[in-house]
Structures are given as structure tokens and as C-alpha cells.
Amino acid sequence: MVAQSTSKGLPEGHKGPTQMEAAVIPDVHEGPVDIVTIPYATLVAEAANPSTKLNAQIKTAFDSAPTSLGLLLVSDLPPEFAAKRERVLKAMNDFASLPEEIRDKYADAPSFWTIGWNFGRQIFNGRREMQKGAYCCNPNTDVPNVTPEQVEENPAMYRPNVWPEGDDCPELEPSLKDMSEFMFDVGSLVAGACDTFVKDHRAMKNETSKSVKTIIDESQSNKACLLHYFPPEGKSYDISGPAPTSDPVAELPDDRNIKLTWIFSRQLTSLCPAQFLFHPAVPEGSPSLPALPIPAPSSTAGLWIKTRDGKSLHAIIPDDCLAFQTGETLGFMSAGALEATTHFVHAGSEGLSLEARRVIDEKKASDPKWANVVGGTVSRETLAVFLQPDSDDAIVAETGETFGQFTKRVQARHY
């Protein structure tokens, strides 16, 4: 990490997220890029009969080479994945659309907003984060199986889940639990594949050392965060005229439009492919219309990876895949053989892509309620499941540093 963040405006003792760093965007941009991809069935077969067959792919995806993306795709997922994804991302948008006073009922300050709703609470580099909101939970249990002393010592890890009540988005809890559990299970398979590579490089050699998979499977501190990227302030798309004949000029990310890059401190992070939603603006007095799923609004919108050789690469996660990113903790456990990379999310160009505009125009032609829609905004929904050790798991062999100590050290560096 290259610069510190400030804690101005946060309550004393705030232990916010540990995965941010100041943006230093290189001049070279490429994308989209090829990403190492492993079929789901291959991971299942490897779990049943562990071998070194996937070592080369794990190395290419996650190793410490300057060109490594620190990113892996899992393809050919079970058929129910599509419905799970659609359900949970719709629920996120529904919750984010509730009045602020309702959303804030589910903000959990004692956990430093790592449980429940979090919007506008985090301050990075002196700026309050107003781009996205998050609804976070433990994907494995509502109440972690730890002692009261552990909760008091590490509330950001072990506070119990908080869920909407009554008519306040009742779909959020079941859909988030369902999808995050599925992503956790696939992540456990990826961790098992990493183990056969890590065991030859890991710094912790003694017999009591846990494997990457065991640490994830036994952890009481895993976190799932459902993310809603609000439409950029003042950015509305005009669709009143005829559709353009070509895509708008793609706006590449640079220091003018990228405020933060991130590096995860966990072992692995499971990423759901994002969903873009068009929010139609309706004439005054007309009933509101539901958001419409659309393709990416720009060829440069979405996830970008910043590699160690000074490139920003556009990493597109297909709708039928899950992505996995390495974290700093996995680097410690593999003695640096596997390393994390930084990343950021880019909003894209000022105009809508041809594919996004086509979907909107088709909706206008087929649904009379949309006939008078002349503009709208775009939000982005996704889900990240952070797979991490418990607070007392040792992760640095030379010093015996635990994950809890490491987390506090990193937090102190940024707040």
C-alpha cells in the first residue's frame, strides 16, 4: 500500500475496512484481458481426489509475477446460479431504494459498520465514501460461535448479523444468505486447489499449521458484502433522441476519475458478476417504474486490475462465472508465492453503449408504461464474499502474528 488514509470524522477507535490504498493509476491501460478459468466440475473432482493438476493454473492466476492478475474465474456453475444472482442483486437495489431513515435502522455502529447497512461511514484519504452502499453479514452463521471476550475484542469480526424486519425489503435476508453460502462453498473448493500449490511454498511448516481450506471452512469471521454503487451524482443518460450508430468514446480510467484502488487483506475474495440497472426518469406525477437490467453502459465500465508491472487491465467477469481474488493473508501463508493485486471500479464513458441502449429501446417499444421515458441513471450491484481467518489464527510464521493482530496493524496504517 502506498499511502495512508485519514480517520477524520470517524468515532474514536474506528476499525473500518483494511483493503484500501490511495489511487496511483499507471499510464498504460489494456483490456479486456484473458483470465485463468477453471470449470466448477474440475474443482469438485479435484476436491474428491486432490492432486497437483491445477497447480499451473493457480500459479498463473495468483502468483507474484509482475504480470499476474491475482484473479481466477470459475465457470460452468450449477444451473441455479443465475436465479440466485438475479434474486440477490435485485434485493440489493430494492433495499438501497428505501428511504434513508429506514436503511439506517440496520446500520450497526458497534461492528464499525461491517455488519448491516453501511453508507457514508467510511473516510478514505480525507473523503467520505459516497459512491457505494453495502449490506454485510456473516455468510455462515447469524451468531458466530465465539466467546463474549472475542466479540468485545474484535467486534468488526464477530458481531451478530442484523436483518431487515417486517416490510423493509424482506427478500434481502433469504437471498443474501442463499447466494453468499453458495459463493462460500465454491470459494472453499478454490482454497482446496490453492492448498496443493501453497504447501510447497508456505512459510508455516509445522504439523499444527492449518491449510488454507481448513482456515476458511472453520472461520467464524467470514464476511459477505452486498454492494450498491449509486448513480454518479449529476450523471443522467438522455435517451430522447434516436439511438447512436456507434459506441461512445470510451473514457479510460486515470487520476481524474479514479479516487481509490483497493487491495484485499483476506485470503480469498469471491466476486459475483455485477449487474447494471437503468433507473428510468418518469414525468412528474407519473408512477415510478422498476429498474431495468442492462448490459454494461460502457466498454470500460466495471472492474480493473492494477498489476505490479504498471498496467491497468480491464477484467470482465462473465455473467455465468464467479471470480476469485487473492488477498495479502494468502501471500503470507504461501511465503510470497501467491500475492494480491490492487483493483478499482470504473464508471465508464458519458454515453450509453449500443447494447445498453438497444435493451432500453426494446423495453420502451414493448411496454406502454415506458413510452414517455426520456432519460435515466445507472447503478451497479454486486456481491463480494470475503474468506478470512479467525482473529487468533497465526498467519506470519516468522513472528507468529495472528490475523487479528495483522488486521489491526493494517487498520492503524490507514485510519
What can you see in these coordinates?
With about 425 residues, the chain is α+β, with helices and mostly antiparallel strands. Helix content is about 25%, strand content about 20%. It is built from eleven helices and 21 strands. The strands form five sheets. Strands 3, 4, 5, 8, 9, 10, 12, 13, 14, 17 and 19 form an eleven-stranded mixed beta sheet that branches. Strands 2-16-15-18 form a four-stranded mixed beta sheet, with no helix packed on it. The protein has a two-stranded antiparallel sheet with strand order 1-11. A hairpin with a 4-residue loop joins strand 15 (about 300-305) and strand 16. Helix 1 (about 40-50) packs across helix 7, helix 3 (about 80-95) crosses helix 7 (about 170-200) and helix 7 runs antiparallel to helix 8 (about 210-220). The radius of gyration is 21 Å and the shape is globular.
Q: Bin the helical content.
A: 25-40%
Overall radius of gyration: 21 Å
- Number of DSSP E strands: 21
Could you give a short account of the major beta sheet?
11 strands, mixed
- Class based on secondary structure composition and strand pairing: alpha+beta
Instruction: Bin the strand percentage.
Output: 15-25%
Rounded to the nearest angstrom, the distance between the terminal CA atoms is: 13 Å
